[in-house]
Write a structure and sequence with these properties.
The protein is α/β, with parallel strands linked by helices. The chain is built from eight helices and five strands, in the order E-H-E-H-H-H-H-E-H-E-H-E-H. The strands form two sheets. It has a three-stranded parallel beta sheet. The protein has a two-stranded parallel ribbon with strand order 4-5. Helix 7 links the parallel strand 4 and strand 5. Helix 1 runs parallel beside helix 5. The chain is globular and about 50 Å long. The chain starts with 7 loop residues before the first strand and ends with a helix.
């Protein structure tokens, strides 16, 4: 059986925390022929400490933020907004994905948004507690590998499919 390659439009946080921008990006992805749009689901308080500073490249670009948590809060989409974006995606017939960065976001995506596919970001490939929880969902998985080593990929797969 031959399967068509699926194209995922990585929106990530390029919406700058604005629902209207996110909707425009979804529409552009649809017009470009993408099969899915992909966002990021995270709770800043569960990812970083309040005092964590920005990386040097972020300091040069993001002059208005002093800490990482300030920046993440600005770019975070709340649960209601994510639900509306999922409904909008469905309305214009493009798949909706969102990568969880911690367990609370995973639970939201699975239980409230009822997503069918979980896309694991490459930066979380060694987050074994999160991978273990994802594996237990029995959902379809897309595992981004980025700059991961073959050993990291094998370890991730063994955790996901215990």
């Amino acid at each position: 059986m031959i399967q068509k390659t699926k194209i995922i439009a990585e929106i990530g946080i390029n919406h700058n925390g604005r629902e209207s921008t996110a909707k425009k990006l979804i529409m552009q992805a649809k017009k470009a022929g993408a099969d899915f749009v992909k966002f990021q689901s995270f709770n800043p308080e569960l990812l970083v400490t309040k005092k964590l500073s920005l990386a040097n490249y972020q300091k040069a670009k993001e002059k208005k933020f002093k800490t990482m948590i300030e920046m993440l809060k600005k770019y975070q989409l709340d649960e209601k907004t994510q639900k509306r974006l999922q409904m909008y995606s469905k309305k214009i017939k493009i798949g909706f994905l969102s990568s969880p960065f911690e367990e609370k976001s995973l639970e939201f995506l699975v239980k409230k948004l009822k997503i069918k596919i979980i896309k694991i970001p490459s930066g979380e490939i060694t987050n074994y507690p999160l991978l273990k929880k994802i594996g237990k969902t029995k959902k379809k998985i897309i595992l981004s590998t980025g700059m991961s080593s073959l050993k990291e990929i094998k370890n991730a797969l063994s955790v996901l499919f215990l």
